[in-house]
Each structure stands twice: as structure tokens, then as C-alpha cells.
Write a structure and sequence with these properties.
The protein is 38% helix and 17% strand. With 186 residues, it is α/β, with parallel strands linked by helices. It binds flavin mononucleotide (FMN). Flavin mononucleotide binds next to helix 1.
Length: 186
Amino acid sequence: MKKVLVVSGHTDLKNSVANSTILGILKEKLPGAEFDLLDSLYPDFRIDVKAEQEKLLKADVVVLQFPIYWFSMPSILERWIEDVFLHGWAYGSTGDKLKGKVLIDSFTTGSPETAYQKGGAVGHTMDEFLVKTPVIAGFCGMKYAGRVYSGGMAWMALGANEAAKEQVRAKAAVHAGKLVKLIESL
Ligand SMILES: Cc1cc2nc3c(=O)[nH]c(=O)nc-3n(C[C@H](O)[C@H](O)[C@H](O)COP(=O)(O)O)c2cc1C
């Protein structure tokens, strides 16, 4: 069984509906996986680089789980990549520690998926916004296994009531199912 590391880039999981639901289902379905909850580990953004590199060394599959903030990854996840994927460790002529590992990104947006297309409300696709994940993977000799993406996940925009939260939880469950399938197919 492949060892899975799920890195949560949500900045406030206590107030999350979509990402916390996805993480909860992953914990159930992937009992051997390790969960790296960056918001509770590093509320001050001071990443323990050695500890994070150790987690990566043990993993065969790395899942980046996050909500889209301003058309990108949340700042804490960007910071984690900046601090941990170091030259001479992750990339460069002697940086081979991530080589052969699989990278997946899994994320949610508030806007519906239809907004993220040419002519849609946002007008750009997720391939354009998140072009960097497969590039980072390639740079580090990792295999990029693709992304799992679900839109329309902002319960506040769907009515801000319990029914809206339930709607988001249901979509999050579908999302988690797709992600588990992808991981199991590796
Ligand atoms: C600071 C911030 C920036 C956001 N930027 C975007 C954005 O650029 N595009 C989008 O579709 N949704 C955006 N959203 C909505 C979140 O992506 C959405 O609320 C989240 O995916 C829901 O997951 P959660 O319940 O786990 O927080 C933003 C939310 C916040 C708080």
C-alpha cells in the first residue's frame, strides 16, 4: 500500500465546511495516510522544515488539499513549498529527495466550475491559474497525477444557512470519493 501524505493548506480549518469534510472522509477511507494540518501546526507560519521534509521522505503520494484564495493556493501552503522544497534537497543537481513521488492537487472554489472557463465569470481556467503544480512536480522529478477540483463550495454564497452547508458537504463527499479513487488507481 502506498504511503499517502495529505497536506492541508486551509488557513482556518475550524471554520471550514468543504475542506474539513473532504479531510474527514479521507481520514476514514485512507487509514494509513498521514495528515499535515498546516493551520494548526504553524499558525505563525514558522514551518519546521526538518519535520516536514521527514514526512515527505516517508510518503509515496503527496496530496495538496486546499481552498482557492485569490486564484491561487493559500499563503501558508505557498510558504510550506517555499520553505520545504529546498535547492539541493528537492531540486538542483543534488536535490533528488522527492524524485519518483506522486503529486496531486485537490482544491475547492467558491465560484462554480463554469466560472473557470473562457467566457465564464472569471474568464480563465484552472489550468491557467494552477499551471505551477505540474511544473513544480516536474522540477522536483515528481510524477504529477492530476487535480481533483470542485467549485460552488462557498456556503455563505449559497444562502448562508444549514441547507447551504449540507449542499457543500454533499459536494465535498463526491470530491473526496473522486480523490480516493485517483489515489487507489496509482
Ligand atoms: C481569502 C479568500 C479568498 C478567496 N478567493 C477565491 C477565489 O479566488 N476564487 C473562488 O472561486 N473562491 C475564492 N474564495 C472562496 C473559497 O475558495 C471557498 O470559500 C472555499 O473553497 C470553501 O472551502 P472551505 O469551506 O473549506 O473554506 C476565497 C475565500 C477566501 C476566504
